[in-house]
Design a protein that fits this description.
The chain has 221 residues and is an alpha/beta fold. Helix content is 38%, strand content 17%.
């Protein structure tokens, strides 16, 4: 499969590198191709570098791994025509570091970045996911508790969410029961809000290899 990854930071490089390693064809979209020369050499023959527009056109499925503050602009550079009717797996978070750590959210409570992206690109199948995780766990969940922890997704298109579930299991080794569908894209308000707490945890634990697990009691009828 051809996959576009928008964003050339650590998250984008991690996602694209893993996909290339398992034999998928991947193009990273970036404003600065020169910074990815070393990455491309390591990623090998399944990896390409292009503009946001080129990566969006290349991908049958597209990951948005751009910084939250620049996500909508990056997606506009990618172009609605290139993204139309495609699944966009949105990893972005509306983080504002201007007041230090932990960050605050520049959109919250009554809206989310996921919703803003969906409103801006109504013909794109936005599925919010992987945004609550450190990059190493996104592509290798079994390195922690044998994968017994949770990933949250949400979006308006049920078929798109089901395909994303299947792809995340196939590509990255997520267990089916670990992926929790939180409902429509409004649920991004909650999953994005996890990030300030999660980044505080990073400081306390001193490691990026951690995640949340939902433990619940089944109620008998």
């Amino acid at each position: 499969m051809k996959i576009g990854v928008l964003g050339s930071g650590k998250v984008g490089q991690t996602i694209a590198g893993k996909l290339a390693a398992i034999g998928q064809q991947v193009m990273i979209g970036t404003r600065d191709p020169q910074k990815l020369t070393e990455w491309q050499q390591k990623a090998g023959e399944n990896a390409w570098i292009g503009s946001f527009k080129e990566a969006a056109a290349f991908g049958e499925i597209v990951f948005n791994a751009t910084s939250g503050s620049g996500s909508i602009e990056a997606l506009q550079l990618a172009g609605s025509e290139q993204l139309e009717k495609k699944i966009l797996i949105d990893l972005s978070n509306p983080l504002d570091f201007s007041q230090g750590m932990p960050p605050i959210l520049f959109v919250s409570n009554t809206d989310s970045l996921g919703e803003q992206i969906q409103r801006t690109f109504p013909d794109v199948k936005v599925v919010k996911g992987l945004n609550t995780l450190p990059a190493p766990l996104m592509v290798n969940p079994t390195q922690l508790a044998d994968g017994d922890h949770n990933l949250f997704i949400c979006g308006n298109d049920n078929d798109a969410k089901n395909e994303v579930k299947e792809r995340l299991q196939q590509w990255f080794g997520w267990k089916s029961g670990a992926i929790l569908d939180m409902g429509d894209i409004k649920a991004a308000r909650g999953t994005e809000a996890i990030l300030p707490f999660s980044m505080s945890l990073w400081g306390v634990l001193g490691t990026p290899v951690y995640n949340l697990k939902v433990v619940h009691q089944s109620l008998s009828k």
